[in-house]
Amino acid sequence: MSPILDKRRAGVLLHITSLPGTGEVGDLGQEAHHFVRFLHDTGITVWQTLPLGITHADRSPYQSLSAHAGNPELISIDWLCKQGWLRHTDITSEPKNALGYPKSNQLLTKAFQGFLECAHEADKLDFTHFCHSKDFWLDDFALFMALRNEFQEQSWNQWPEHYRDREIKALQEARRRLKVHIDTTKFQQYVFFRQWLELKAYAGQQGILLFGDIPIFVSYDSADVWANREVFKLDDNGEMVVVAGVPPDYFSETGQRWGNPHFNWHNLQKTGFIWWIDRLQTQLELFDILRIDHFRGLEAAWEIPASEETAINGQWAKAPGKALLSAIKSALGDIPLVAEDLGIITPEVEELRDEFNLPGMKILQFAFGDGPNNPYLPSNYITNCVAYTGTHDNDTTIGWLERLNDADRHKIFEYLGSPQLPLYCALIREAMASVANLAIIPMQDILELGTEHRMNTPGTTVGNWTWRFHWNQLTPERTERLRHLVKLYNRSG
């Protein structure tokens, strides 16, 4: 176990997009730094976010255009103005989108022009160094984004064959023709990484660890699949024969058909899993702790024929998780990984998790339905785990409790010792009081919010990933209650 995870800590789950602010989504500017100060003041030492990648139209951070690139929508425009690369008049004169916000992509293009015209020489050298140090993914990604823009955001398998199949002469010509777009994309990544690393440094000064999330699969329409076909199970034309998902479970009677390509583990293993190691290396630059989403897919993953509309008619396909984790450990050492071991967990998955001493996840909303041996009951926890009231895929705790019948609520009331507190407060207290080394509380639960504020409803594609909080929701009473629980249960790290 990494020393970071081997002590009692408390954390808050809040994605960057959920921060307050004047833009269309939360960003890496002053509100993010303000949130770090709030965590420090309450004794919280872990800030967990969702993946940071560039999303598709559904805005899911679990379906991104790159496993390495950060989302330019998270860039602070005010920061660019402070650097002198963008003028406030650029913001006010910029056409607005349907929601009344300036179009950030156009502002970032203007900022690049400002950078070229007036940035200090040290900044320009820093940008050049960034491009060289990230060229193992950045070159392909920037070209991918330029071509995707040229073809009206069609998936890469719909591009003309010479681009789809990465013919050398065609790509050379495209790099020359699309140089401005390519360089602008690289600049956006430079700014994203620079802003994020400034936030990480500030968090470190305040004693706050950043906890990131790695989706096990990548989107088919991504630079990763376009540039690394051999890493994935594709046919000769680059089409998917099978797609990823999960069978019917707690969240969906028909399972979830995610539509991601499956890994070609045979080819990955021949290369020493270098694609995976590079991917983790990027995320370790950004985060102090990493969660592997859908960890059970490293032991076996649900393969669904691409022609199927639901996830029902799939099958489990084995994966070389032990070899992969061994290669990661050999290359990167004992890095602080958390296994998202939810869903259908077999003894083989538990064995893989435990062999590498990875903490799993314990969700209180899953704890009260299967008798005293339920692994999510706090009385069955071990120290090497992460306790949650709920995750981004769960309803808020208040919303979940309201949907339960009286008998189920009474089970919880009895298990918690007939508390005088409201049940949602008692459940937060239970997570904090547990033996789990790390207890994470979603921000919605700290703010005592209902179902309408949940982040995501699995199996749906509308109305997700848009929730944001406001500072006036964080009353002094709620802040003090959180501070008291952190201190009471010795979770200040």
From TrEMBL:
Keywords: Carbohydrate metabolism, Glycosyltransferase, Transferase. GO terms for molecular function: 4-alpha-glucanotransferase activity. GO terms for biological process: carbohydrate metabolic process. InterPro entries: GH, Glyco_hydro_77. It comes from the Bacteria. Pfam families: Glyco_hydro_77. Gene3D superfamilies: Glycosidases. Coiled coil: none annotated. It catalyses: Transfers a segment of a (1->4)-alpha-D-glucan to a new position in an acceptor, which may be glucose or a (1->4)-alpha-D-glucan. Its EC number is 2.4.1.25. Belongs to the disproportionating enzyme family. This is 4-alpha-glucanotransferase. It comes from Methyloglobulus morosus KoM1. The lineage of its organism: Bacteria, Pseudomonadati, Pseudomonadota, Gammaproteobacteria, Methylococcales.
